[in-house]
Specification:
Elements: E1 10-14, H1 19-30, E2 34-39, H2 42-56, E3 60-64, H3 70-84, E4 89-92, H4 107-134, E5 140-145, H5 158-174, E6 183-190, H6 199-202, H7 205-214, H8 223-234, E7 245-248
Parallel strand pairs: 1-2, 1-4, 2-3, 4-5, 5-6, 6-7
The structure holds nicotinamide-adenine-dinucleotide (NAD).
């Protein structure tokens, strides 16, 4: 029996230099996995991998990977296989959220959000699935970080909600055929997580206090809350969970 749930597994995580992606890489390493931290912010990504290596021994590798660029994704997946000999877990986490009002949203911003979130998740999940299948994976995992914006609408998240909703249905679609090839696909749908992404709003103590007053679990999520769910989905214990979207939002959206 494995000593830790992710012992001897290799995980590829996008947008891992900071925030939720970093928390997932950190927790996976803590649970015994080799972790490949990928991001476009190379300097921060190197520092983040180094921090994990200092804490848990040499098990983290930092790689440049722009999820919107297919050749960048293919190169990072190939390097992962070269370094670790296989791949078990892919986490499609990288994302941007421009927070632009619908009437001011220009085509360039719209397209970039779609490219990073929707096309990026396609690029990484397909390249990762192909690599896992080529290696004869069993207990392979693809985990998408989607968002409560797939069920709760906002006029400043039109592009973001469209992209995340696409990812959710893309996940469900691939989940109908991947398990017979040794892989499950699932999504984690966070509510509000205190990271750089929404810091302009959530760094204000009054805004956090108001959220805590109205949310059933009276606080924002931390990146670790999302990472804990990711550990479970990545582990063999989640074998029969497939095509699911799991809310980690403290009850913000109790149905959906
Ligand atoms: N923070 C929240 O409240 C919240 C809520 C729901 C969902 N999410 C989702 O969780 C994920 C992580 O968000 P976060 O809060 O940690 O954000 P963050 O901004 O702190 O981190 C995002 C990371 O993605 C990287 N990134 C951006 N574009 C990239 C690209 N093209 N290729 C590779 N990496 C790229 C960034 O450099 C950064 O390191 C995102 O998909 C986000 O949409 C966040």
């Amino acid at each position: 029996m494995n000593s830790t749930p992710l012992d001897k597994k290799t995980a590829f995580i996008t947008g891992a230099a900071r925030g939720i992606g970093y928390a997932i890489a950190h927790r996976f390493a803590e649970e015994g996995a080799n972790v490949v931290l990928t991001d476009v912010n190379d300097e921060l990504n190197e520092q983040s991998a180094e921090r994990i290596n200092k804490e848990f021994g040499q098990r983290a590798l930092a790689l440049h990977c722009d999820v919107a660029n297919r050749s960048s994704v293919d190169a990072a997946i190939a390097r992962t296989i070269d370094e670790f000999g296989g791949l078990n877990i892919v986490v499609c986490n990288a994302g941007i959220c421009p927070f632009v009002n619908f009437l001011e949203l220009d085509n360039t911003t719209w397209q970039r959000t779609i490219d990073v979130i929707l096309t990026g998740s396609f690029n990484v999940s397909q390249a990762g699935a192909r690599a896992m299948i080529a290696k004869g994976v069993t207990q392979g995992r693809i985990i998408f970080i989607t968002s409560g914006s797939t069920i709760q609408a906002s006029g400043t998240q039109v592009d973001y909600a469209a992209a995340k909703s696409g990812v959710r249905m893309m996940m469900a679609s691939m989940s109908t055929m991947l398990p017979k090839l040794g892989i499950t696909a699932n999504a984690i749908s966070p509510g509000v997580v205190h990271t750089e992404m929404g810091a302009f709003h959530w760094d204000v103590p009054e805004h956090r206090a108001e959220f805590a007053r109205t949310n059933p679990v009276p606080r924002l999520a931390s990146p670790a809350d999302i990472a804990n769910a990711a550990v479970f989905l990545a582990s063999d214990a989640s074998e029969y969970i497939n095509g699911a979207s799991i809310r980690v939002d403290g009850g913000l959206m109790p149905i959906g």
